[in-house]
Amino acid sequence: MSQATSATATSPQVLPFYKAIPRLVKDPVTELAKMGVEANGRIVRLDLGPFRPYLISHPDHVQQVLKTDWSNFVREGMFWRPVQRVTGHSILGEGDGWASTRKILQPLFTARYTASLAEDMADIISECIVELEDFARTGRPIDGGHQMTTIVNQAVIKVLFGGRISRDTAERLAPEFATCATSIGFRLLVPFAPYSIKVPGDRAFLRSAKKIDEIVYPLIEQASREKSHSNEVVSELLTARIEQDGKADLRQVRDDLVSIYGAASETTAMSLTWLWSVLHEHPEVNARLQDEVRRVVGDSEVRPSHVAELKYLRMVLQELLRVYPSAWIIPRQTVADTEIGGVRIKAGSQVLVSPYTTHRLPEFWDRPSEFDPERWANEKAERRHRYSFIPFGAGPHVCLGQHLFYVEAPLVIANLLSRYRPVLTNPQRLTPIPGASVRPKEKLLLQLEPIERNAA
Ligand code: HEM
């Protein structure tokens, strides 16, 4: 239900075209956050010509859009239309299709189920990290963003298909997903352009989408023929779909798998990419993290059982998600006329919930621009506004992959740090650029200095 509009509406802070555009062209992510912070969490209306979205950052307003009045703020229009072209009718959609999928997926991504996938995930992550040995030996730097994407893609594919997919096929699949994620950029800028008009990126996008189908469908068919039950997502999905719908529609299972992949991979890979720049800028955090990994893991292989003991690493990840929430905006479209914080908003308007801004509001965060993992030391005792930290969204659409993230990311980081000391060879100020996830514009080149290890 939409909120009733009151007689005494207040106006949003309006940023006129001539002021908004030059700022957003220069550095859109940073400037958008500054606009919200300058407005002190008040609603900002951006005048971007035909596109006039509302920027939402105050935790009370976030709560209304994502939780209390969520059904009036739907995933349609800008951003979602191009995304749904690959993900189809599944968990990244809206309405009945989303609701029935959420019912199936929710029990799948519990802490317990995630734990059952973790051993396989640890194996593949460790394999990928050992393969970096050659870079360490020759001193050739790795491209941080590219390697984090490769490792995360392999781990997510393992979670989805388990032993059903060979390493070779997974290696063919991962770049196709990556192409879909990056070639969608232009469509995100012109979401209402009809598909009959070709825009840059379309050809690469369609080619990759076709290749994904050519690889994924046979895997689903194989899983549906085999009666033996295993715990990877594709088998669980087939079983759950048969239980719920009486049969498993292969197209539906394909949409589910591609949607989970889309939600799980880029977000995680980009968070891990920012980490290496942060550690370079904060040598004290870096040293403490290295010590913890050394103490907990030693010379052994990193296993999921180590994750719970890596407490400082978890604090670093929480702070990383505060400062660089990879889901930097959560877009919505209003269904009916409504009011947020006294501002009247018409049906069909675009509303941008901005975790990147909310996480920087001085009213809710002490020293918001400082990277300080210590602020998470006493998380339970802290009395924060519940909607002031929203890297995983909130309400009925809240992220299903939080447990997975807090297992997968520590496995990657601890694996790397137990073998190498990554040194950033091209330190520079990074510019966050918008996309489905926020990523640094510049490449991060990391030299991997090997750590002396005693043979296990
Ligand atoms: C750093 C890592 C991640 C971040 C920052 C992140 C962030 C988010 C956010 C903000 C949403 C809410 C979207 C909305 O309200 O429209 C979301 C939804 C979702 N996330 Fe994540 N996510 C991450 C990792 C993962 C992983 C590893 C998975 C693996 C399963 C996952 C699965 C999902 C799914 C399925 C949804 C849709 C839930 C729904 O609409 O009902 N995410 N995520």
Automatic annotation (TrEMBL):
It holds the Pfam family p450. InterPro entries: Cyt_P450 (IPR001128), Cyt_P450_CS (IPR017972), Cyt_P450_E_grp-I (IPR002401), Cyt_P450_sf (IPR036396), Cytochrome_P450_Monoox (IPR050196). It comes from the Bacteria. Keywords: Heme, Iron, Metal-binding, Monooxygenase, Oxidoreductase. Belongs to the cytochrome P450 family. This is Cytochrome P450. It comes from Nonomuraea purpurea. The lineage of its organism: Bacteria, Bacillati, Actinomycetota, Actinomycetes, Streptosporangiales.
